[in-house]
Every structure is written in structure tokens, then in C-alpha cells.
């Protein structure tokens, strides 16, 4: 059953992490907090966001403007 308060509850964790960074204000504002909340390092968070970006690129051929900054951060 899907959590009605979280529309992303059924998504894989790496997708959820990407969206938390994106919707929380971007990497500069929330990346450290998201990593800490999930008990992972910033490098691990970047790897998970990079994985999501690569999957979405493979699926859609490009990233939306809203997703591009998170993927760019994850790749640096």
C-alpha cells in the first residue's frame, strides 16, 4: 500500500534520495542533511543521485531542467 503522504513511497531509494535533494532546495541547501538523515556519506548520496540521473537519461534521453542541477552536482 502506498503512503498517501509520500507520493514517492514506492520508488527505489536512490530515486527518493534524488527527489529529496531536488525538492528540498538543491544540493547546496540539503545534501548534507539528506545524507545524515539516511546514515550515508555525501559521496554515497552523490553516487545514488548519479545512478538515478543515469537511469532517467537512459529512459528519457534527457533530464528536465529541474533534475539537471542535481545530476550535475552528483557527477562532480
Give the secondary structure arrangement, pairings included:
Elements: H1 13-23, H2 27-38, H3 42-60, H4 68-75
Helix pairs in contact: 1-2, 1-3, 3-4
Explain how this protein is built:
This protein is mostly helical and 76 residues long. The protein is 66% helix and 0% strand. The protein contains four helices and no strands. The protein has helices at residues 13-23, 27-38, 42-60, 68-75. The radius of gyration is 12 Å and the shape is globular. The chain starts with 12 loop residues before the first helix and ends with a helix. The model has no long low-confidence stretch (mean pLDDT 95).
Per DSSP, what share of the residues sits in E-state strands of 2 or more residues?
Answer: under 5%
- Mean pLDDT over the residues: 95
**Residues in helix, %:** 55-70%
Gap from first CA to last CA = 37 Å
In the predicted model, the low-confidence regions spanning at least 5 consecutive residues are: none
SS elements, strand count? 0
Largest sheet: none
C-alpha Rg, in Å?
12 Å
Order of helices and strands: HHHH
What's the total helix number?
4
Structural class: mainly alpha
Using the alpha-carbon principal axes, give the shape: globular
Amino acid at each position: 500500500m502506498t503512503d498517501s503522504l509520500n507520493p514517492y513511497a514506492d520508488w527505489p531509494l536512490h530515486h527518493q534520495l534524488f527527489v529529496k535533494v531536488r525538492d528540498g532546495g538543491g544540493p547546496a541547501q540539503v545534501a548534507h542533511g539528506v545524507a545524515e538523515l539516511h546514515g550515508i556519506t555525501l559521496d554515497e548520496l552523490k553516487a545514488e543521485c548519479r545512478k538515478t540521473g543515469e537511469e532517467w537519461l537512459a529512459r528519457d534521453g534527457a533530464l528536465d531542467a529541474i533534475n539537471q542541477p542535481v545530476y550535475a552536482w552528483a557527477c562532480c
